[in-house]
Write a structure and sequence with these properties.
Layout (H helix, E strand, L loop, with lengths): L1 H11 L4 H18 L1 H13 L8 H12 L1 H6 L5 E4 L1 H10 L2 E5 L6 H12 L5 E5 L5 H11 L4 E5 L2 H12 L3 E4 L10 E6 L2 E6 L1 H6 L4 E10 L6 E7 L8 H18 L17
Parallel strand pairs: 1-9, 2-5, 2-8, 3-4, 3-5
Antiparallel strand pairs: 6-7, 8-9
Helix pairs in contact: 2-4
């Protein structure tokens, strides 16, 4: 099975983005048609943001694109990328500050780290937090795909957190998805679109690691396979010392990004699930 999947990945990695995204739309709608649970979660989560089923139709296809584009992003040739707000990175680099990038499950979150590594990684490497896959062959595939100049990975463990802190104190960059549900004891309950969601406290702790600039980023997927736009902007406010208050600020910042492009948010992600032990 692992050999077959690798072969499929390497074959799809040679495809242009446009047919890959067309394939993704088909996969997205196939999943929607076959999974009542998927449909219920997607519509329930979008309703919290005030969106109707009609308004979230495009999100079904975009979720499929998220999967179909991975072979090209992991194993294929570079894709077209533009920047909006790159001056915020340049300012932080010039000041010698560490960079903490917070990215929600919005658009193509793989491209944000890749684009940073290609543009700034030689001088300021980025370390991204990731949860290893349960299948060993997939772990090897992902690790190999993400092992590129200027980009490092840190596991979701105490050793990984220490790796992130070390990178920030060295004036480097760190990237993570703050809307992932952390294990029990590593988060607090904070509102996300008006409903309590278990939210990691790690971003607030990392932001206090010295001279750290907190930036919001996400990768907008352009239509017709034209590439991506990486959006970057400051968080806009200092994070409170109180963990619950800081989590609420981060959740509101993530929700604000989602409201800008709700079609590209992964509404099916189980954001409100209880934390695992």
């Amino acid at each position: 099975m692992s050999t077959l999947v690798r072969l499929i990945f390497r074959t799809l990695a040679r495809w242009p983005l446009r047919p890959l995204h067309a394939l993704g739309v088909a996969l997205g709608w196939l999943t929607w048609a076959l999974s009542p649970r998927y449909r219920r979660r997607l519509h329930a989560h979008a309703a919290l943001a005030g969106l109707t089923p009609v308004q979230t139709r495009a999100a079904v296809g975009e979720a499929g694109k998220l999967v179909a584009e991975l072979p090209r992003l992991w194993l294929g040739a570079p894709v077209p990328v533009r920047w909006l707000g790159v001056e915020h990175i340049d300012d932080a680099v010039a000041a010698g500050d560490g960079l903490l990038f917070l990215t929600p499950h919005l658009g193509c979150f793989e491209i944000t780290a890749q684009a940073y590594a290609a543009r700034h990684g030689a001088a300021r490497p980025m370390t991204v937090l990731y949860r290893p896959a349960r299948q060993p062959w997939l772990t090897d595939l992902v690790a190999g795909a993400r092992a590129r100049p200027g980009l490092r990975t840190a596991p979701t463990s105490l050793a990984g957190v220490k790796q992130l802190l070390k990178a920030l104190k060295a004036g480097e960059a760190v990237g993570l998805l703050p809307d992932q549900v952390p294990p029990a004891g590593q988060g607090v309950w904070a509102p996300f679109f008006g409903r309590p969601a278990y939210t990691m406290t790690l971003p607030a702790r990392l932001a206090q690691a010295g001279r750290v600039r907190v930036l919001l980023s996400w990768g907008e997927r352009l239509p017709r396979g034209a590439g991506y736009v990486v959006h970057v902007r400051p968080l806009g406010a200092a994070l409170p010392d109180d963990p619950a208050a800081a989590a609420a600020v981060i959740n509101e910042a993530m929700a604000a990004l989602v409201r800008e492009s709700p079609a590209q948010y992964l509404w099916s992600y189980d954001r409100y699930k209880p934390p695992r032990a």
